[in-house]
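Internal QA ticket QA-208
Title: Verify multi-chain structure generation after dependency bump
Assignee: T.L.

Test input:
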Amino acid sequence: MPRKSELSRSLSFIRYKTLASLQVESARTYAGYLWWVFEPLANMLVYYLVFSVILPRGTDNYVAFLFAGLIPWRWFQATVMRGSNSILSAKSLMQQVYLPKIVFPTVTFLTDTFKFLVIFVLLLLFFILGGFPLGYPYLALPVIIVVQALLIAALTLLFAAITPFLPDLRVVLENLIRLWFFLSGVFYDIDMFSEHAQVYLRLNPMAVLLESYRAVFLDGVWPDMMRLGVFGALSLVLLGVGVWILFRFDYAYPKLKL
Amino acid sequence: MPTQSSNSEHALVLALHNVGVRYWKGGGLFRRHRSEFWALKDVSFQLHAGETLGVIGKNGAGKSTLLRLLAGIIKPDRGQFVNHGFQTTLLSLQIGFIPHLSGRMNIILSGILLGLTRREIEQKMASIIDFAEIGGFIDEPLQTYSSGMRARLGFSTAFHADPDVLLIDEVLGVGDASFVKKSKKVMRDRIQSDKTVVLISHSAAQIRSLCNRVVWIDGGTVAMDGPTDEVLEAYLKTTRHRRGDGERSLAGDDEED
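Actual output:
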């Protein structure tokens, strides 16, 4: 399609649609933006009650341990789940105007990532002011966040690309992510398993990412940068596959009966 | 099939050569359960700058598929469609509108989707608000608007987008009675200017008054292509029931989240 400035139009749409999605979330409820903070707090309170009061695990700083795992986990889960629906829910839009379909999961990714970064600042304050060890390992945080962002972007684009062809996949995905949650050590420490089991558990990038956040925040030590690098590279490859599928089928999506 | 070339002194805008568009029915996961359906089978015609081309045909003849193809939303599965570098946009009312956001934010979102740049939207903002007769409500959320106000804002934004080639599916005017009159008038004026327009309609009367050339689509092929009077005469002979004016008001929301 020869258009004057297809790219700048897409970028413009991504920018304003992301801004709009963020505004909508605040406009929809009375407390508005405060829910970005309240909701994860309420969520963490539930886990705290379950694992600290009802089923005590006996770990020191269990609340801090939980916070450091749960906040990054929620970023992952919310983005991938909403992203998998992003092209499906743009069906009426794409019948009326051409847009590269990649813009829809991109908007989801940017919206949820922005919300994560806001909460992450609170998490930082919690650990800095909470008397936990501070030091150079904090410099690893941007690396951890970038690797996780690559992983999230890759899966968001991939599932966004596939679910319009296989709508049933959403149910599978929902349960898959639930299973993934239990395998990622959100509320337990992977170190408490046997050496043998740990090897397998650390093949899961989310488990490694959560351990990395905790290494920095709770123990003040450097995370396993080597492993982070490998997962980052693999995510990049997967991201490439997702982008390729989205462009390969760009004109097929408006023809699907969604 | 006669190919009309009365406008050949004007620049060629779009050209279709034996275009076919296929949809898949049923199936889903397994290809062998699917059956193919050619919404367009073999369509050839050209569009030149300044023309107002009417597209007429029964329901399911492939008119909407054709318009989507011309808008660049889908691509042909066979044949060739060439756009010689023009921005073709479907007149999409209230596209991208989100009820929770202000009228102003919705103009920006809708304007971007319709192909305007952020700067162009800023330049046209006052005129869009003025034409829509929204006044002081422009910074209120869209969900507080009446359906008439939304329709006016949707029309005004789409009208100000003004692409190189305007594609219209039936609707010329919307809103409450007085705004229908006003919006129809500006739309007719634009169509009758030297704008390049493709207009789909059931209404022979509407096509007769606006178009200088008509393509009659039947069963996914071009049944006839020529001057308005000739094609309409032939078309009307084959149809028993003449439809009404073909105008309807669009009040549906386009929220996609």
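Spot checks passed. Residues 1-7, 242-257 of chain B have pLDDT under 50 and may be disordered.
Status: verified.
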